[in-house]
Structure formats: C-alpha cells, structure tokens
Amino acid sequence: MDTSRRPVVLIWELTQACDLTCDHCRADAQPARHPDELTTREGKRLLDDAREFGKGQLVVLSGGDPLKRDDVYELVAYGDEIGLNVTMTPSGTTNLTTENTERLADAGLRRMAVSIDGASAESHDDFRGESGSFTETLRAAEDARDAGVPLQVNTTVCERTVDELPEIAELVDELGAVLWSVFFLVPVGRGAFLDSVTPERAERVLEWLHGVSDQHSFAVKTTEAPHYRRVGAQTGAGGSRRGGVTAGDGFVFVSHTGEVYPSGFLPVSAGNVRDESVVDIYRDSDLFRRLRDKDALKGKCGACDYRALCGGSRSRAYATTGDPLGSDPLCAYVPDGYDAD
Predict the structure, then answer these.
(1) Which of 16, 49, 48 is nearest to 31 (CA)?
(2) pTM score > 0.70 for this model?
(3) Whole-angstrom Cα distance, residue 88 to residue 60?
C-alpha cells in the first residue's frame, strides 16, 4: 500500500463521552457528549470521503465510548454498505450489552476491540477507574465471539501494567482474540500523569513480544512503538524490511468535532472535515507530507539507519519535545557514530 495516497487505518472519534475515568485516557473523557460533535449526516459524508481512499478502507470507530451515540448502529451499517471495513473500540461499560453487541454484528461490524490493562479485576478496574469494568469487558469479549465478530484486545504498557503482560497474554489467548495490540504509553491527556517504562525495559518487552505470537494463536502488533520492527530486524524475528504505520504515515485520526490529526496522540490539526475532504487533508497537507518524509526526522531518529523501517513514535516525540519530527525518547537504540552532543 502506498501510504502517501491511502492510510492503513482511519480512526474516527465519534465522541469523547465515556462513563469511565481511565488513568491513561488521551481524550480526558467526560460523561456528557460535546454539542459540536459531527452529526449523523456529517458522519456519513466523512465515511463517503473515506471510501474514496479505496474499497475496504479500514475505519475504526472510537471514543470516548462510541456507544454513547444512538446512531452508531446506523453509521456501522452505512459504512459496511458502501464497502468500508468498519471496526470499533467500545468501552467496557454497561453500554456494551449482549444485545448491543448483536446489533453491531447485524449492522456489519468487522471487528471489536476491547481493552484489558490488568490480568485481574483488581488491577484492571483500578486502572480503568470503574469497579466491574473487568467483568463487563470479559463478558463483552465472549459476546463478540458468540456473535461471530472477531476480537482484538488492546493493552496499555506503562510502569503500572508491564509486569502483568505475560498473564494478560494468556488471557488474550483464552478469549480467542485474533490480535493483541500492545500500546506503549504516550504522555498526553491523563496519561501525562503515568510513568512510562524505561527505554531499556521497552526494548526487553519488544523482544519478548516477538516470541509471543509463536506461542499463541493470536497475532501481535504494537501501537506507538514502531521500533518493534527494528528489534525484529535486528534479532531476525521480524522478517520484513518494510516500514509500518506511524502518525500521519498510514494513520489518520478524525476528532469528534471533525479536526484531522496525524494521530489522536498528536493533536495538531491539519484541517477539518467540515471544510474539506479527509482524503485531500491526508494526501496534501504540509503536516502529513512532512511526517511521511523519513529524511526530515531530527536527532537520533534522523541519524538512525532504521528510520525507513521504524521512524519512531511521532506522537511521543511531539508530547515530550513539542516537535513531531524529533527523536522518540522511548527508543534505546543508538546509531553507530551518533553523538547527541
């Protein structure tokens, strides 16, 4: 796929409303919906524009909690009708009932992603800020399986969760998930108050993750840790020398009010879908073009011989330095001959 023309993933944040108060929340979600959210009509126009990227374009409906919107089933059905691959990341709340999961399946939902950030109810519920979230999430995962919707599990990696990753991996396997998406914390929103793992610890986790899919039936991908590919190339576990998705390069995020960001974790707007097509913004905006130019990277990332394969987390670079082209501070690798001074 030519990621200068088409993203691998388009995420639409339907709403920032959510009943949870997760410690890592990028959106700093609130219980009530924002009055300026994209309307149903505007949302369908966005989906029409997304279809111009090509048939089968992956669109992830996220939040907040997308089930806070009554029109979510209509939007899923419309996306499926026009040939999009529509998936969703609902919150583990009482909104995610068996009936609602079945309605999503009937509307054409292609995959459901649930978040598991602890191997027990105690640790997960503490992280999510809601007693009973762990139980609701496991029940929803089983409902998705019963409804024939493939399951993805998302897990945040930070100091509070990293020691439980092996146990979470076992749980992901037991749930019959097809994919484990392991997200390395970016310090934005409420997540700015959490402690990230050290670069050295991140390196060991990435090495371990390369062996996880060999031991289990699900695939593994990382989010905001593109040096997973560099680690794979160095250890011989990755196989491919092809680059993957980073903010603005294979990835585009549309906020609840229509702002277009390279990522939800890199909240710099390149335009608004109320004014122009997300296709034109993704392909032609100066911000997105710069993020796709790996030779424009600065510091250690710019000097790295793996920059085309990896590129570093542009979101973390922005969150920590204010420059989306700066170095990713979570990466432990130092290119030969590189002198930070």
Answers:
(1) 16
(2) yes
(3) 5
**Structure-block tokens of residue 28:** 């700093």
Q: Give dist(CA 119, CA 208) in Å, integer.
A: 18
Which amino acid type is present at position 341?
Answer: D
Query: CA 116 to CA 156: how far, in whole Å?
Result: 8
Q: What region, left, alpha or beta, does residue 194 occupy, with left being phi > 0 and alpha being psi -120 to 50 degrees?
A: beta
Cα(202)–Cα(331) distance, integer angstroms: 8
- Identify whether the C-beta of residue 278 lies closer than 8 Å to the C-beta of residue 269: no
Phi/psi for 119 (5° steps) reads: -85, -5
- Average pLDDT on 245-264 reads 97
Tell me the C-alpha distance between 81 and 84, whole Å.
7
Q: How far apart are alpha carbons 132 and 215 in whole angstroms?
A: 30
d(CA 238, CA 284): 32
At residue 62, the 3 state secondary structure works out as strand
Cβ atoms of 9 and 261 within 8 Å: the answer is no
Question: Max alpha carbon distance in the chain (Å)?
Answer: 59
Instruction: Decide: 217 and 173 in contact? Cβ < 8 Å.
Output: yes
CB 182 within 8 A of CB 157: yes
- For the chain, the first-to-last Cα distance in angstroms comes to 38
What are the pLDDT digits (tens) for 183-208? Answer: 999 988 656 778 999 999 999 999 99
Burial class (CB in 10 A: 0-12, 13-18, 19+), 262: buried
Strand 251-254 and strand 260-261: pairing? antiparallel
* Tokens standing for residue 303: 């000097």
Q: Is the peptide bond before 299 cis (omega within 30 degrees of 0)?
A: no
Of 64-78, 190-204, 294-308, 324-338, the one with minimum mean pLDDT is 190-204
Between the CA atoms of 72, 21, 317 and 113, what dihedral angle is there, to the nearest 10 degrees? Answer: -40
Amino acid found at 20: L
Categorize the per-residue pLDDT at 243 as very low, low, confident or very high, splitting at 50, 70 and 90.
low
* Residue 195: Cβ-neighbour burial (10 angstroms; 0-12, 13-18, 19+): exposed
